[in-house]
Each structure stands twice: as C-alpha cells, then as structure tokens.
C-alpha cells in the first residue's frame, strides 16, 4: 500500500503544519478502497492566510515582465515533463485511472497548456491595443491582471484541471489559491512544489484543502477577484450565484450530456470506435462524454454487433500494466451513484441492457476486490425521456438512441439544458459540417472524440458553463481591460470656460 505524508494548507511557499485546521479526511485509492494520505482540511484562518499570502505576492508578480514570468513557467513545464511518470502514478492512485492513461494524457495535457501560455505571454499575448482617436488624442487599452483568483477543481482530471486553471492565471500575472477536489487532493502539493522549484515566488500559488464549505468560503472572500470552477452544474449554480453577487469574474466548466450523431454513410467500425472513446475512456468520467449515441435505425444490427465485439478490448487489470485501459469509479459515493443510475435504467426506464449492469467487471484482479469497480454498460433502444438519457451519469454507461432522419436526430440531440460537447461521425464532410453547425454545444468534433489541445478554446453552452479555457481566448478570461484616452492638444477640454459676456463683467 502506498501512502504519503500528511497534507496541510500550502501557502507562503510551504505546507503550513502549525496552525492548520484539526479536521482531517483521507484520500482513498479507489481501486482498493484503501486510504493513502491524511489531509488536514483548511480552516477559515488557514484560507485567510493563503489568500493573504497570495495578496502579498501579487504586486511583484503582476509587475514582473511577461517574458520573465514565462521563463519561470517554462521551467515548471520541464519539471512536469521530467516527473511525468511519478506524477502519473500519483494520479492513478488518487483517481483509479490506468497508468497507460495518466502517463500519456493527464500530466502531458496539463504541461502542454502551461507551455502554451508561457509561450503566448512571451510573444505578445498580453499586448493591448492603441489607436489614434484624432490628431491630438490617442487611446490605449492595457490588459491588467485581476489580483487574487480562486481555482476550484473537480476530481476527474486533477492535475490537468489544476494546470488548466493556474497556467493562464499565473501567466496573466495573477496569484492563485487553488482548492483541489476533496476526493483527489494528492496532486496539489506536488504541483505547488514544482512551481516553487521552478522559481515561482512564494505566495503566487497556494493550496487549500477541504469540501464544499472551503470552496464556498473562498468564493465569497472579498479579496478574491475571480473564481474559476470545474464541477457539477448544481454546484456551479451556487458558486456562480455567490460570486456574481460580489461582482467577481467567473469561469464555469460544468457537466454535460453530450450527443454523438452517427450518419448513415459512416463506416460502422469508425462509429463504434468513436462511441466507445466517448463513453468508456476514463471509465466514463469525462465531462465531454458523448453518452447519447444517435444511430440510424438502418445501422442497428451492425452497430450493436460491432460494439459488443469491440467491448472485448476494454481491458481491466493491474492499473500499472501498459495494456490496462479501464479502471474503477473514483469513490464509493460516486460508485453508488452510477450503480443506482444503471439500476434505474433496468428497473424504471426499462431500457434494453445489452452489456454490463451493476456487477463488477469480469477478470477483476483479486487485489481490487474491495474497490469501486463497475462493468462497462450499454443500454439500447433508449427513449429521450428516460432518466438515464436525460441526466449526467458520469460513468461507463452508453445509451443508444435510434433515429430515422438527420433533422430528427439534431432536434433530439439539442433537446437538453446542457451544451458542453457534441460530435458527428460520417463520410460526407459537408453533411458533417452541416450537422455540427446545428448542434448546440461549445466543444464539437467531427470524426474524432475527446482531444482537447492547448490551442483549442473550450467551454460549454447553456447550463454547461460560462467562459472558456485554453487557446488565446482562455487568457482573456484572466485579465481586465484598462482603457486610457490621452489628450495631447496642450489644453484641457472643458465646458466650464468663461463665456465672452462673463469676461466683460
Ligand atoms: P462537484 O460540483 O461535486 O465538486 C467540484 C468542486 O466544487 C469540488 O472541489 C468541491 O469541493 C467544490 N464545491 C462543492 N460545493 C461547493 C460550494 N458550495 N462552493 C464552492 N465549491 C464547492 O463536482 P465533481 O463531482 O467533483 O466533478 C464532476 C463534475 O465536474 C461533472 O459534472 C463533470 O461534468 C464536471 N466537469 C466539467 C468539466 C468541464 O470542463 N466542463 C471538466 C471536468 C469535470
């Protein structure tokens, strides 16, 4: 059993053992249900201290030239890459995701975003604009850092989320207080230490620990200027409501129930590969999962046959093994939640179960007998009004819906309050584009699923979010504009000059 030293609120450049709150909780390895680390939840005093440490560091960091900030961040990128496997093992332990995934996706895509923003600010990404208003006057607009910002993370991509938030935040000259999910907190201290080793001044990146109460305290704190949140829609509503009441900036990266539309000219193999990536990668715990798979009715037999065949390639096994591609659910609570959705699908929705169910996967190694493992599951012939079709399950549960016309599929795909992602698979690229044009979602794919490179701005429509992460637009979410009009005519324009008749008095 792997275990780590206790975790304490990290601020002013180090973990603060003394003064840290006395409430503790455990980080659990979901593959075995064994605890791996004791975390000391941050008390209000700890959070105040972390925010003060960020506020103290902000003036100097924000006035450090972007090129110098960039050098620090690039050193952190090099450290992240050098320690990729060590960090990936931590993520595997905390999330239960196979090492084959955490070592190729989680740390890599986080480091990529940090590198992207470091390079962007070093090459004019924070430049403002200026223009001549008239011969005697100029306007210039500068992009100014916001101040102390809060990052609140979900548990599914812990270090990636921490980097997707802290990279543009710090690049723009802000300081951050970051709260990882209480379910997967291990990465946070490693990241804080890497930033420090890279030369980030003390106080620019701080970590607080705990559950919703810690997040809520951060969100309301008067010094915090912005909250960047990743999590469920229901929590996001609370966080956005509370932040908006204090006129704070927000970025909200929330849940989805995304549609995959398979067109009738699509090779069935491709359609199935896409649908599987959209449902079983990360054991289905991906916000952009395409869990509503719309398939032409004419393709039913071949799609299901190919899907069942390819599901044999979902490999449960030693999470450190290079061929293992499926892990447990992240926590007991989440396991119970996903299982209850599957049970509901069978008992109440009466959807047709063609694979999986509420049991543990076959061939589960004996060391994982107590972990939170659930079979990959497929329901077919689903109807739009079923609960398993309408609500985000966030587990390895695919629902297949058959359609007769593309117009009908698009209409049904859009019939949701959520709008995170969507995708289409087909041969005729014009048809694919036309479907994408009509789908209501912020992140869309054609003939692929899930890739989210640093250069691509991503964010949800409708209840799935506010603002974007990554890409050039992602940086704009961490600055505020300051526009200045400079009059150079030599006289100050005024309406209070003496009138001629007043001069004669
Ligand atoms: P969650 O909403 O339960 O928790 C997210 C974070 O919010 C945690 O750190 C939690 O402690 C904190 N929190 C809880 N109550 C709070 C409050 N009142 N004020 C402030 N913070 C509070 O979400 P989760 O279960 O950890 O994550 C899964 C969800 O995240 C899914 O819905 C998934 O779709 C979504 N997600 C979205 C994206 C995206 O980019 N759109 C990415 C990953 C995950």
TrEMBL record:
Any Pfam family: Aldedh
InterPro entries, sorted: Ald_DH/histidinol_DH, Ald_DH_C, Ald_DH_CS_CYS, Ald_DH_CS_GLU, Ald_DH_N, Aldehyde_DH_dom
Record-listed E.C. numbers: 1.2.1.3
SUPFAM superfamilies, per database record: ALDH-like
Region annotation (Disordered) ranges: 1-36
Presence of the UniProt keyword Ligase in the record: no
Sequence ranges of Polar residues compositional bias: 11-36
Source domain of life: Eukaryota
One term of GO molecular function: metal ion binding
Active-site residues, record numbering mapped to chain: 253
Enzyme class label: oxidoreductase
Claim: Oxidoreductase is one of the keywords in the record: yes
Annotated catalysed reactions: an aldehyde + NAD(+) + H2O = a carboxylate + NADH + 2 H(+)
UniProt keyword list: Metal-binding, NAD, Oxidoreductase
Record family assignment: Belongs to the aldehyde dehydrogenase family.
Name recorded for this polypeptide: aldehyde dehydrogenase (NAD(+))
Lineage, top ranks: Eukaryota, Fungi, Dikarya, Ascomycota, Pezizomycotina
